[in-house]
Amino acid sequence: MDKLWAPWRITYIRSAKKKTKCIFCGARGKPYKNHYLIFKSRHSLCMLNLYPYNNGHLLVAPLRHTGEIAELSDAEMLDLMKTVVKSRKLLDTLLKPHGYNIGINISETARAGIQNHIHIHLVPRWKGDTNFMPVAAGTKIISQSLDELYKQLKKCYVEYAEQKNDKNY
């Protein structure tokens, strides 16, 4: 059997045992870099997924902790969707994907990794972005580091916010 060394994964493995806080609630008031938080709106936030399916995989979540989409107020729901649209525009500008998978996983059965805080996945897709690696080796290749992508997304968002006179970041 071939081995793929991934020493950076040990941090995730160790933290999985210690995790007691919700990552979205933890990101609400912290400096952005600590959680790869790209921006916040009045009721929502946008952050990089630490374990992405593809380069540029973002998570959008309401600021209020709830595991049920039906519990969101109309204002929270509208803001959540506007944050998805703004996040997509940001990815369109920076990464220029050919398409997206956008979805919500609700419950463990639906493979929700974070079950008690509703969130939306934005996964950029490109023609030909799939290859033999996930099938043959069970390995997904991500072409850019989170730190590099974070810096680029933050810069792009600041320029976007200045252009739109958007103070919510």
How would the blueprint of this fold be written?
Elements: H1 9-18, H2 23-28, H3 32-35, E1 37-40, E2 44-48, E3 58-62, H4 74-95, E4 99-103, E5 120-125, H5 133-137, H6 146-164
Antiparallel strand pairs: 1-2, 2-3, 3-5, 4-5
Helix pairs in contact: 4-6
Task: Please supply descriptive tags for the structure shown above.
39% helix, 169 residues, 5-stranded antiparallel β-sheet, HIT family, subunit A, alpha+beta
Distance between the termini: 47 Å
Structural class: alpha+beta
Helicity range of the residues?
25-40%
The CATH superfamily name of the domain at 22-132 is HIT-like
Describe this protein's structure:
Helix 4 (74-95) crosses helix 6. Strand 1 and strand 2 form a beta hairpin. This protein has 169 residues and is of the alpha+beta class. The radius of gyration is 16 Å and the shape is globular. The N and C termini lie far apart (47 Å). It is 39% helix and 15% strand. The mean pLDDT is 82. The protein has a five-stranded antiparallel sheet with strand order 1-2-3-5-4. The chain has a domain at 22-132: 2-Layer Sandwich (HIT family, subunit A), CATH 3.30.428.10. The chain is built from six helices and five strands; from the N terminus they run H-H-H-E-E-E-H-E-E-H-H.
Give a brief description:
With 169 residues, the chain is α+β, with helices and mostly antiparallel strands. The protein has six helices and five strands; from the N terminus they run αααβββαββαα. The protein has a domain of 111 residues: HIT family, subunit A (2-Layer Sandwich).
